[in-house]
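Quick illustration, no need to memorize.
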Amino acid sequence: MSVDRAVASVEWEIGAAEKGGYEHFMLKEIFEQPSALQNTVRGRLDLSLGTAVLSGLNLAPRELAAIRRLVIVGCGTSLHAGMVGKYLFEGLADLPTDPEQAAEFRYCNPILGPDDLLVAISQSGETADTLAAVREGIQKGALVAGLCNVVGSTIARESGRGVYLHAGPEIGVASTKAFTAQVTVLLMMALKLGRCRRLSRETGLALCEEIAAIPSLIERVLAQNDAIAAIAKVYAKADNAFFIGRGILYPTALEGALKLKEISYIHAEGYQAAELKHGPIALLDDRLPVIALLNDIPGKEKTLGNVQECRARRAPVVGLVTDGDEEAVQAVDHAILLPRTSASTAPVVTAAALQLFAYHMARERGCEIDQPRNLAKSVTVE
């Protein structure tokens, strides 16, 4: 019996699987982010209506307006992207949003219905736990959409709708450009869902401009590479580190901690900044650096107060601060300068700086950066 299979064309070029003069694939992929995000955004912004064009969702505006809740499932970096998505969907589209750990999802008998949209995030599209969550969502009667980078992957096929990242192949085990692409796609989804509700055309147009500017903002972060490497050299012998942030930057702090522990083997924890005084502050001393996300967006003043608490206990502080914000620069021991952004685009820009920081920490420690011990690029078992 003959079988006819559809022919799928792989659009990636062979050069994408080579280091191209970079010392590691991870560094190459960090520096590819401006072009990768251009590909993610290309053709997806409607500058006349102030909305996003996401035809892969296959949902008309009336159907999008009927959605009453979002549930986002993912693991690791993808879960952190989903946690950023919660702030975007609730802030821009007035939609209650629940990020869930995909491995636990099907075991908690989730409450889902036809008015819910389940968004499954997976770079490879093959993550076993996320795939199981997709199947559970379909069984429960929810709308399901996949956010994947690999065209034709299992999650992309079984979801039936979704958005491809178009970030290009990611060889390094520690995810970099896939995370920033995931957050950018979630931002465009929030824009589209918001425009089907109470988000005005003017606000939508302004957000379109912000999204289009993300690649150039990332380029300004990458220009800080040497300065970030110098700061990393100061702290490379640390055994532990805290990352703190508030609001939409809290998941970004979690992602920064994950990057550092993945490739440098430093024990790093991410915290909502206010949680420090509820236990973790007991661990602070002059050997435990605190990486504080101090972007000049709502919540900064509160985080500055937490920074003062850390320094009062002799903990050195590395601050990610908005260029020109002298108050924040003076409050920390070392400052990584970031371009000014809105709260909506701050996680993408901040993540790129944290990726460079983790990379240079690992490099100083002589770690195997592209293939860290005990880790796999795609987790295809439960």
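The first strand starts at residue 45 and ends at 46.
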